[in-house]
Every structure is written in structure tokens, then in C-alpha cells.
Specification:
By secondary structure, the chain is an all-alpha fold. It contains five helices and no strands.
């Protein structure tokens, strides 16, 4: 099996090719075609097809969002447990002050640097992108899509 490319801030965003390059475009193109047909030949059936295709596009989008939200919740739980073990006792009570997005960004920080990064995040209220940019030793997450 080929070696995975090391993750960095520049390449950590992941795409799911079957979803991003097939399913989503097919649903969006179908919606556009149904709108064009409904405008050119207005009738109840054509408008109903637009409504139906709109529901499909919304459903596909929401299903994707639900899966990402579950991943976010698992990451949040994992990171809180990880931080409870790695940060100094003085910082443990403040772990709850980190936002979900900050915890998700911190998952990329190595065990050696995460305590300092948590302290910096709490004191400066770093944005997720700033947290990721501050990471020197990237801890990859190949499972997220």
C-alpha cells in the first residue's frame, strides 16, 4: 500500500470523491434541469419535480452535515479526554472553555505541543485556522471526510 502524504495545514482538507465528484453534482445538475424545464414548460408536474428535486438536494446536504456533526462530536470527546491527560493540572478546569471548533482544530497538534497551544488558545481565543497554522508537528487525521 502506498505511503500517505504527510498532512499539513495546506493539504489537510479532505474530499470524498464519490460524494463530492458524483453524488452532489448529479443532484445539483438534476435540480437545475428541472428548474429549466419548469420555466420553459410550466405545469403542475414540472413544478412538482422542482420541489421534489429541491427536497432531494436538501436531504443529501443534510445527510452529509449530520455525518460531519457526528464526527465533530466524537472528535470533541476524544480531544477532551486527550487534553485531560496532556495539559497541566492548572489548565484542566479550563478545557470546557474551548469551543467545539477549537477542539476540532487542536486534534492536529502533537502531544508534545498541545498543552502550550491550549494555553495560547485560551489566552488569545485563537480561531481554528490560527490554531492549525500554529502547529509545528502535525498529527494527521486521515479518517475525517
Amino acid at each position: 500500500m502506498a505511503e500517505r502524504t504527510p498532512q499539513t495545514f495546506a493539504n489537510h482538507v479532505r474530499f470524498d470523491p464519490p460524494f463530492h465528484y458524483f453524488v452532489a453534482p448529479v443532484f445539483v445538475i438534476s435540480w437545475i434541469i428541472s428548474v429549466v424545464v419548469a420555466v420553459r414548460r410550466p405545469c403542475f408536474l414540472h413544478f412538482w419535480i422542482v420541489i421534489f428535486n429541491t427536497a432531494l438536494v436538501v436531504a443529501v446536504t443534510r445527510f452529509r452535515q449530520y455525518a460531519l456533526k457526528v464526527q465533530d462530536r466524537v472528535i470533541r470527546l476524544e480531544e477532551r479526554e486527550r487534553l485531560a491527560m496532556l495539559v497541566p493540572d492548572s489548565l484542566r478546569p479550563q478545557i470546557g472553555k474551548l469551543s467545539e471548533r477549537q477542539l476540532i482544530a487542536l486534534r492536529f497538534a502533537s502531544d508534545e505541543e498541545v498543552a502550550g497551544l491550549v494555553e495560547r488558545t485560551l489566552s488569545a481565543n485563537l480561531a481554528p485556522a490560527d490554531i492549525k497554522k500554529a502547529i509545528k508537528n502535525w498529527r494527521p487525521d486521515y479518517w475525517r471526510v
